[in-house]
Amino acid sequence: MKISNETKIGSLTAISIALLILGFNFLKGKKTFERSRKIYALFKNVEGLEVSNAVKINGFTVGNVSALRETDKDLLNILVEINLKKDIHIPKNSLAEIQTSLLSSPIIVINRGSGTDYVEAGDTIATHERLGLLASVESNINPIVAKLNGTLTSLDSLIEVVGSMFDPRTKNNFGALLANLAASSASLQQILNTQTGTLAKSLNNVDSFTKNLSKNNDNINETLSNLNKTSAKLANAKIEETVESIHTTMAELNKTIGKINNGTGSLGLLVNDKKLYLNLENTSRSLNTLLDDLRMHPKRYVNISVFGRKDKNGPLMSPLSDSSSKPPGK
């Protein structure tokens, strides 16, 4: 049965669309022909988590993030869909948390519990909200700021108590010191402000920089691989042997040129011996004379009756003016 062109084009289009969908899912981390289980986790803050980010247990990748969904319009909770590999036993009392770092994308780490009941497909695992990088720095510095404020209050009280013991000039010095400490505390508080503080902006810039590094990780690896290949080719190019060969050739050429300049060998004699040049010039002139004489008096050399009687003219003693140049020295 003959298949029409329309049928062929339709079949080819359907196959192409199917391959495109499979390739897209593969790039997103979805393996079409591998059985997997999906579990869920609720987080208040996903800390920049994205689809296809890794899910690890004890540092080993056991799955990836397959989807992120909002649970309400206020975004109080975000539902994270986790695609687990098969035959992974996770106790139900395990806790999932998001970990961030300066040099990599956020990942989900599941801290295994001690229970004997395991999470099944469709279950929601408990989560633990871990402080992000900026929040962690702020939580460590805020107690210091609180202690500093308490110290300033105590110092103010101390100055008021003992102020009566000093003269007005000393009181003014204590007042200026207290004002400077208060200004320093306000400046430090402004630096530590979560939204507009200098430290917050710096940490946000570092976070953006590390995210860009993570996104361009493949390009960086490819560039380093190309550099390694180029350096390997240069190492195998035998550059030293080639340079040594060139040096040897130049040395031999210098020896040959030296021999020519010194008149050693046939080429040296030919270049430096003027007498040999004059002999060659005279031989060339004599050959031209002979050829001109043969052309002008052929009967002298070939005895054929066609030419008539014998030519009694004498032989040429020099070449004709139109067949040779002037002899050297004239």
Task: Tell me what you see in this structure.
- The structure is a single chain.
- The protein is of the alpha/beta class and 330 residues long.
- Among the domains are: 33 residues; 97 residues; 59 residues.
- It contains eight helices and seven strands.
- The chain is elongated and about 150 Å long.
Topology:
Layout: H1 5-27, E1 36-43, E2 54-57, E3 60-70, E4 78-85, E5 95-99, E6 107-111, E7 124-127, H2 133-162, H3 168-191, H4 198-215, H5 217-235, H6 239-261, H7 265-272, H8 274-296
Helix pairs in contact: 2-3
- Please trace the helix and strand order, writing H or E for each element: HEEEEEEEHHHHHHH
Main sheet record: 7 strands, mixed, barrel
- Would you report the number of β strands? 7
**Strand percent estimate:** 5-15%
What is the number of helices?
8
Which structural class is indicated by helix and strand composition? Answer: alpha/beta
List low-pLDDT spans: none
Strand arrangement, major sheet: 1-4-3-2-6-5-7
The termini sit apart by 101 Å
Query: What oligomeric state best describes the polypeptide chains here?
Result: single chain
Principal-axis shape: elongated
Helix percentage range: 40-55%
Mean pLDDT level: 76
Rg, nearest Å: 50 Å
Would you summarize the structure shown here?
The chain is of the alpha/beta class. It has helices at 5-27, 133-162, 168-191, 198-215, 217-235, 239-261, 265-272, 274-296, and strands at 36-43, 54-57, 60-70, 78-85, 95-99, 107-111, 124-127.
Structure keywords:
14% strand, elongated, single chain, 330 residues, 8 helices, 51% helix, 7-stranded mixed beta barrel, alpha/beta
